Amino acid sequence: MTAEGDNRVLMQKVVKDIFSDMQKKQHRMPKLTMCPVKQIPGLKSVATLEVMTNLIYHREQALTKSMAKLMQKKIME
User: Fold this and answer.
1) Contact (CB, 8 A) for 58 and 35
2) How far apart are CA 10 and CA 47, in angstroms?
3) For 12-22, what is the mean pLDDT?
4) 3-class SS letters over the chain
5) What are the residue boundaries of the structural domains of the chain, listed by start?
């Protein structure tokens, strides 16, 4: 098995664990302190720790929602 295959299996396990923890109410989604859609585009610089942290949190929320929708669609098929 290649290292790439190992990473794929590892990422699948991580996603499965996150969804499992979310169902048990053990995984809390990170709280945003800034709105990535309204506040961040108007800033002169996004190179601050708060902005970068909010962008990472927003990405986690978006990817989690996207993966949940995809999994729901696959289950229904």
Assistant:
1) no
2) 31
3) 84
4) CCHHHHHHHHHHHHHHHHHHHHHCCCCCCCCCCCCCCCCHHHCCCCCCHHHHHHHHHHHHHHHHHHHHHHHHHHHHC
5) 3-76
Q: Which two tokens stand for residue 56?
A: 């990472």
Average pLDDT for 7-16: 80
pLDDT digits (tens, 9 = 90+) for 24-75: 888 888 888 888 888 888 888 888 999 999 999 899 888 888 888 888 888 8
Q: What angle do CA 39, 42, 44 make, to 5 degrees?
A: 120
The Cα 55–Cα 61 span in angstroms is 10
